Every structure is written in structure tokens, then in C-alpha cells.
Amino acid sequence: MRNKLIYILRTAFILILITLGVLVLFNPASTETNILKAIFSSTEDNILVDLSSKFSARINVIVESDSPETSEKTAETFYGKLDKDKFHTSNADVSKVLDDYEKYHNNLLSSKMRFLLMQKQYDSVEEQGLEALYNPIMPPVGSIEEDPFLLLTDFVMSLSPNKQVTDFTPVGVDGKYYSLILLSVDSDIALAPTVLNGEVEKLIDLQREMSVKDVKIYLTGAPIHSYFASSHSIFEINLICILSTIFIIGLVLWYFKSIIPLIPIALSIGLGIFSGYCMTSLIFKDIHILTFVFSTTLIGICVDYSLHYFVSDEGRDTIKEIFKSLSVSLLTTVSAFVVLLFANFILLKQISVFTITGLCTVYSIVVLFYPLISKKLVLKKRSVKQFNVPEKWAKITIYSVCAIALAGFWGIHFDDNIKNMYVPPKFLMNAEKLFGELAGTDGDTSIIVVKGKNLEDILQKEEAIADKLTEENIEYQALSRYIPSEKRQKNNQVLRKQLYKDKLNEYAVFLPAQKRAGLIKEAYNKGFLKLSNDFGFLKKNFLIDENTSIMVVYDYENIKIDGVNAINFQRDISSQIKKCRQICLSLLIPIFAVLYLLLAKIYDYKSGFKIILPSIMSVAFVFGILGIFRCPVNLFHLLAVFLIIGFGLDYSVFRFNNAGKAGDAVLMSCLTSVFSFALLAFAGFKLISSLGTVLALGLISSYIFSIILIRAEEQKIRG
Fold first, then answer.
1. Do 640 and 700 meet the contact criterion of CB atoms below 8 Å apart?
2. Which of 14, 49, 253, 455 is the most buried (most CB within 10 A)?
């Protein structure tokens, strides 16, 4: 009966793996590289992420040369080689609709010009008109005979989001000349990170091609950072896999004096990672690149069960001897990972699903299939001397850990700033610094969401907000900046009429008297500038739906406008991280309580406390070390604690049960896990390196505390 049940379970296991593989083959998940989407998961959060992606998808090209002519010519050549359907400058957008603007030029005024006309500061209006007339950079827009004050030119120039710089025009700094290209990315591409990365790669290739001896080209912007971060992560995945595999091979060869155990170990690891990927693909539409980075540590974790089996296998019914230890270990580890499902982080949910599935797969392989292998396998093992810490030193160690925890407690401080969780490469930091100096802005981008009954209502509400932003001298971009409301267009006509009546004859002496009289008496077009197909880029960039639009605000800090709720990406993202960190912190005591009750139910209350105590001490030790070295505790440090609890309990469970050569298996398991996580400590992405550092420190301390607290003479074999 038992053999028949095992046969059924083996068959079901194989069928499940095949089914998972077939389902994923026909519906594979795509890879997500957007760092923010590793953090947020709810619909409301996704709106924030999409808006951030949409309006942070700007790429700045800086051309450096010793001569202004060379920098400008190179910038124009660079831009000429780009696909204008994917990358464009603000000037390129406006050039498409100049005919519409010229047709309704009497309806159009910039915000600042409106303010001057409303205050009847006509001297300033005349001064700006003359400056526009003699501006060597931008020729007048439209006819000076129809628009002598060049109000349309002023309106078009006001559409640029950055007044400090102009595309292609050289700027001299410290003997060098710089021409900038402020590129906007098509909104559809901006929301498709994989496609955007491909386009950025083409830009980087063009940058390398055109960077010659006398010309240097720099690229800045969020898409550039995303490209290098994801590319480096892929490299790290491969490197960590290779190094972890080499370490495991070397350890197995050294201990078993044979390469044979590597075959089932490699097979179980491969199937564990395969099943983890398949299950994650079925549950999530996209798998984040950082999920793969973290889950490569599954190599070090999955090998634990195989090592426990082969170390304990001496021709007896090994599964019967270690079944309880394996099962308790799986149960506690899975319990720790389940907690990650409540962290409200899509990345951590994916890691949880990936790892739980992988661990369950490896556990099933060991329990169901390893007995078939071991019948034909005879292994010679090295004898490893087990540590037995004297009681005196055990007490000293315990007291020392308590002292470290107490001393470090006062130094613990938290860092939830999203910017501090990513450290860009030095060359990108220098390029961003250079752009900040040239453009004169380092501020954040905020979004104001405007809702209305219809488009006219939306535009009027935007204009009310825009007027207040203009008073505070805050730069912004909005649909109403390009297409004023009908109410605003009517009012602009009135202001223009009053200007012509009061000042045209005095100012426009270069026009014939008859022409000036005609302009003053002109009956303006009763039509209005509309959101036509010519303005398709505005619909993509500023309209969420027919009742909702977006205003993009730059350097919007500490400014309060009644009735306006601005989304500040850095502030709001950091606030969400803080919220998740507080939730995770509040889960620490409940998770310890759940695990203790679980162990107490399986064993007894005293034994349950003895098993869980090493994990508690390792967590206290980790926090103490972080506090002593004044290392800011971020969310990923805290999440690592849950993993320390889950993995660290394995050492205590196996040592407490003392199944066969548990000491050897625990030591080898610790070495493989610590090695894998220690590799993560060197990852370029700070979130992952934080996780790796704390895990490596926590697991090795868990192992040491399990030796100290679960003494050899107290170990018992439990069925």
C-alpha cells in the first residue's frame, strides 16, 4: 500500500511539472526592469508608477567640445540619426502645429504675458517684443505685420519646459562648449521598459560611435540609469550562478570524494528553479529582473535538503530518519516566506512564490526520488570534527550578544528614501551633475491630477492652478499650456485688443498707419483652437481619459495651493516604502509567536523555545551590528530578518533532532547558503546588496548560536 501511494505521488509530481512547463511555454511571462514596479503592486500604486515612468522618461544628451560650432553641429547630427517617432525634442512637437497656432494667434498668450497685460505693464510687453524681434536664436513665429508685439512668438517660446537651456545652442563653461538635446520619449515606449531598454541601447551605441577625440557625448536621465542597472543585474545573475555552482561542486567533491552526488543535486536545483519560474509566470504577468537576481540564491538553499539526505545516508531507511526534520524545516522556512506575501511589494511576493515553489519541489524530489538513487549509490564521507562549545564560553557569547543588541539598539535609525537605495555608477553621477549645472535644475517632478466634467472644464481648472504656479515662479507643463480653454481664448482676445488700442500706434511705427488702424479695428476670428489630431502628442502625454488630465510640475516643494493635491514621486514613493517597512516591523513579534507555537505543537513548549532561540538571538545580533556601525536600516534589511528566521531555524531543527550526521549536513548547508547570500552583498543594486549582507551575517550567527544553545549532550533523536 505504501509503495503504491509513493508511486502515485511520483507520477502526480512528474505530471504537475510537465503541466507547468506546457502552460508557461504557451504563455511566458515577460521580464520587468522598472525598479519602481518592484516595490508597488496595487492599482493606485501602479498609476503612480506609470506616471513616474511616463514623465521621468526623458533623456538628456550633452555634447562637449572645444568649439561651439563643433558641439552644435554634432548635436544636430546626433538628433538627425534618431527615430523621431520614438524620440523628439519639445521644439519638434510645437513645429507640427505652428499652422494651427498662426491661424488662431489672436487667441494665444503666455501666462506671463497675460499677467503683464492684465497689469497694463505695457513697457515690459514692448521690451519683450523687441527682444523677440532681435533674438538671434529663434526667428519670429508668424507675421510681424499681423503680430507686431510678437505675442505668438512669446507664446511658442513659453512652451519649452526649461528656460535655462535651448536644444542644440552651445553654452560655454570653463573653456568648454556644451550643446544639449532634451529628448522626450514617446509615451507608449516609456511604459514598455523592455522596448525602452532596446531603444536606449541604440542611443548608447550612437553615443560611442560619435564620441571622438575632440567630442564627448554624455547621456543622462532615468531610462539611462534603468538600462545600466538592468544590464548589470543580468551580469550579476550569471556570475552569482557560476560562483555558487563552483562552490557547491568543490564542497561536495571535498566531502564525498566523488562527483556522483552532484548529478541528483544539480537535477533537483534545476527542477526547483524551473518550477519556481513556472509558478511565478502563471501568477504574475511580468517577473521582475530582481526576482531572478534574488532567486539565484535558491541554489544555496535547495542544496540543503540534498546534503542532509546524502550525509545521513548509510544504507538505512534514510528518509524515515530525516523525514520529520526535513518536513519541519520546510514548514518553518515556508512560513517565513509566506510573510512576504503581506509586505505589499510585488518583488517580495514574486520572491515568495518563486522560493516556496522551488523549496517544495526539491523537498518532493528528495522524499520521493532520492531513495531510488541511494540504493545504487555508495558514498565515502569525510569525518568532520563537530564543535562543542564549553558552557563557560557559551554563557560569555550569550551575554556578549545581549550587550551588542542593547548597545546597538540606541544607534538604530531608518532610511526610507528611495534615492538612497540606488547608487548609480560614477560616470552616470558625473553626467547628471554636469547636466544639473548646465540646465540649472536638480529638482523633482510632481504630478497634479485634474478631473472635470468635460475638456473645457478640465482646461479651466488647469488654468486656475497654472496662474497660481506662475505667481510662485514654478515651471509646469499641462494641456492648457498648449490649448487654452475657450474662456481663456476669449479673454486673451480682449487683452490683445486693449494692448493694440493703447500702445500699437506708439510702438509699431515700423508699420504703415493704415495697417495699424486695421489691426486695432480687426474683428477677431470667432473660432477657437481645438484639440485636433495635430495635437495627438498632447493626448498621449496629458490625458488619462476624457475626464482626467495631468499637470507636470517641476521643483514643486513646500508650496501649498488650496484644493490641489500634487503627487511628488520621490516623497510619495519614500512614504510608501516607510509604510511597508513599518508593517514588516510590526510582523516580527507575530511571526516569532507563530513559529514558536508551531514548534511547541510539534515538540513541546520547552523544546520549541530552545529551537527558536538561536534565530531570535541572531536577529538581535544583526540589529545590534547595524546600530553600532550606524548603518541606516532600510526595508530590505528588515525583510532579510524574516529569511534569517526561516533559514536559521533549519540549523536548530536538524541539530535538535540529530538525525545521523546532522552536524556535517548543517555545516555544509550553512556554508552554501552563506556563500550565496554573501555574493549578493557585492551586487551593484543597493537593495539587493543590503539583503545579502544582512542574510549572510544573520545565517552564520544563527549557525553559531545553534551550536552554543543546542549542546551536543542535550541533542535527542526524535522520530
1. no
2. 49
Query: What are φ and ψ of residue 532, in 5° steps?
Result: -85, 180
Q: Are 407 and 284 in contact (CB under 8 A)?
A: no
Cβ–Cβ < 8 Å for 128, 154: yes
In this prediction, residue 491 has a pLDDT band, given cuts at 50, 70 and 90, of: very high
With 0-12 CB in 10 A as exposed, 13-18 as middle and 19+ as buried, what is 514?
exposed
87, 103, 110: which is closest to 198 by C-alpha? Answer: 87
**pLDDT for the residue 148:** 87
* Cβ-contact 6, 368 below 8 angstroms: yes
Write out pLDDT tens, residues 150-178: 888 888 888 765 544 556 777 888 888 88
| Cell 475626464 sits on residue | 547
Report yes or no: 711 and 705 within 8 Å, Cβ to Cβ.
no
Q: What angle do CA 240, 244, 246 make, to 5 degrees?
A: 120
pTM above 0.85, yes or no: no
Is residue 348 within 8 Å of 581, Cβ to Cβ?
Answer: no
Contacts 24+ apart (CB under 8 A), 79-83: 79/167, 79/168, 79/181, 81/206, 82/183, 82/203, 82/206, 83/199
Give long-range contacts, CB 8 A cutoff, 24+ apart: 240-247.
240/293, 240/296, 240/297, 240/676, 240/679, 240/680, 241/296, 241/299, 243/675, 243/679, 244/296, 244/297, 244/299, 244/300, 244/672, 244/675, 244/676, 244/679, 245/299, 247/671, 247/672, 247/675
Pick from 436, 426, 427: which is nearest to 178 by CA? 436
Type of residue at 118: M
Residue 656 sits at the vertex; the CA angle it makes with 654 and 658, to the nearest 5 degrees, is 65
> Rounded CA gap, 547 and 324, in Å?
61
- Terminal Cα-to-Cα distance of the chain (whole angstroms): 21
What does residue 29 show for φ and ψ, rounded to 5 degrees? Answer: -80, 150
Nearest to 359, CA basis, from 340, 380, 337: 337
Calpha distance 240→668 (Å, rounded) = 18
Q: What is the mean pLDDT of residues 625-646?
A: 82
For residue range 386-421, list pLDDT tens digits in order.
556 566 666 677 777 778 777 877 888 888 877 776
**Closest among 598, 577, 627 to 336, alpha carbons compared:** 598
Cell, residue 700: 552564520
Measured N-to-C along each axis, helices 391-409 and 605-628 cross at an angle, to the nearest 10 degrees, of 50
* 390/712 Cα distance (integer angstroms): 11
Collapsing DSSP to helix, strand or coil, 543 comes out as strand
Segment 412-440 shows an average pLDDT of 79
Tell me the pLDDT band of 460, cut-offs 50, 70 and 90.
very high
> From the CA atom positions of the chain, what is the Rg in Å?
33
Query: How many whole angstroms separate alpha carbon 301 and alpha carbon 333?
Result: 10
The alpha carbon dihedral of 224, 568, 94, 156 has a sign of negative
Q: Residue 95 pLDDT more than 90?
A: no
Q: What is the mean pLDDT of residues 118-142?
A: 80
